[in-house]
Amino acid sequence: MSISIPEEKLEDFFKRFGNDNEDRRLSKQELKDAFDSLGSRFPAWRAKRALQHADANGNGYISDQELDSLVKYAAKHGIDKGCGRTSGRTSIKALTEEQLKLLFMRFDTDGDRRLSRQELKDAFNSLGSRFSAWRAWRVLCHADANGDGYISEQELDGLVKYCVKHGYAKK
């Protein structure tokens, strides 16, 4: 699902992100923050693509003169609000952190009190993630503190923190 925002509102929105610096240019990080604020599924990717599309002089920033191209890009491609996490299921944002911990531990199918990549994939699939294998890999990169390829009970808070950051639960 993509939402449509009028161009004049998008222009004002992007200008706010560039106004905190003296040169009034938008950096890649400011674009990422803007797209994240708009609810984009992949704000870093969206920022990179916006720069490729709108940065006419190739300096890595969107200036006032390039803002129109940025706004047209954002308006044409929409802001991807439907993040693919729900796939028509009940909203997972209703889960608390504790409920999320319990849900993940239900997927500990071998009973070793740690979650393998496959168990994580199955859990993310149950949450409606379209990219459950990718999510499992990413959460291991973020939360597997000892690097053993599993999420232990001690690392579960890191898993939940990742899930909260990416909209799978409320704070």
UniProtKB/TrEMBL annotation:
Pfam assignment, any one: EF-hand_5
All residue ranges annotated as the EF-hand domain in the record: 5-41, 46-77, 95-130, 142-166
PANTHER family associated with the record: CALCIUM BINDING PROTEIN
Organism: Acer yangbiense
One MF term in the entry's GO annotations: calcium ion binding
InterPro entries, sorted: Centrin_CML-like, EF-hand-dom_pair, EF_Hand_1_Ca_BS, EF_hand_dom
Protein name (database record): EF-hand domain-containing protein
Keywords noted in UniProt: Calcium, Repeat
PROSITE patterns assigned to the protein according to its UniProt record, in alphabetical order: EF_HAND_1, EF_HAND_2
